[in-house]
Specification:
Blueprint (H helix, E strand, L loop, with lengths): L2 E4 L17 H8 L3 E4 L1 H4 L10 E2 L4 H5 L5 E2 L7 H18 L3 E4 L10 E3 L7 E3 L3 H8 L3 E4 L3 H9 L1
Parallel strand pairs: 1-2, 1-5, 5-8
Antiparallel strand pairs: 3-4, 6-7
Helix pairs in contact: 4-5
Length: 157
């Protein structure tokens, strides 16, 4: 059993501000050989560090369907890079036979269930990031660092 894991959660400095979101349980999945780290934003061609981006008044599903965009606070459109990163992440997931993913909560790429609302105010709304939406469409079960214990229970049994 293999798991796709947001690279920032295992301490890799790929977050938009050049830092990471280290989560010890995620790091243990990596160390155990059960997880493969990915950063969809880097896979899509984004640099690190980079300005923050949000899905503007839509969701990852709508972006996948061509009805939404991802922009920075100054209006730069990075939708294509996010779509490419999602596709590259899916290729990796499929190549290793991943059934699960642990992704960074609220991210425009990786958020699942809740994402930032596109106003750059810190407000959140229901929805998924682009990569989470694509992986979900392909039957990969998504978790975030906030419910990683549920995954750990599931894979123990």
């Amino acid at each position: 059993m293999k798991i796709i894991l947001s690279a920032c959660l295992c301490g890799i400095n790929c977050k938009y501000d050049g830092g990471n979101n280290l989560n010890e349980k995620a790091l243990e999945l990596l160390k155990s050989g059960k997880a493969v780290p990915v950063c969809p934003e880097q896979l899509g061609g984004q640099s690190t560090p980079r300005i923050p981006h949000e899905i503007i008044h839509s969701t990852g599903e709508e972006v996948l369907d061509g009805r939404g965009v991802i922009k920075g606070p100054e209006g730069d459109d990075v939708t294509d890079e996010f779509l490419k990163g999602a596709q590259e992440t899916l290729k990796i997931a499929q190549s290793i036979g991943a059934e699960y993913a642990v992704l960074k909560a609220r991210s425009p790429s990786c958020g699942f269930g809740m994402i930032y609302d596109g106003s750059f105010s810190g407000e959140k709304k229901e929805g998924n990031g682009v990569t989470a939406a694509l992986l979900n469409r392909h039957g990969i079960k998504i978790f975030t660092e906030e419910n990683i214990d549920e995954l750990l229970k599931e894979v123990e049994n």
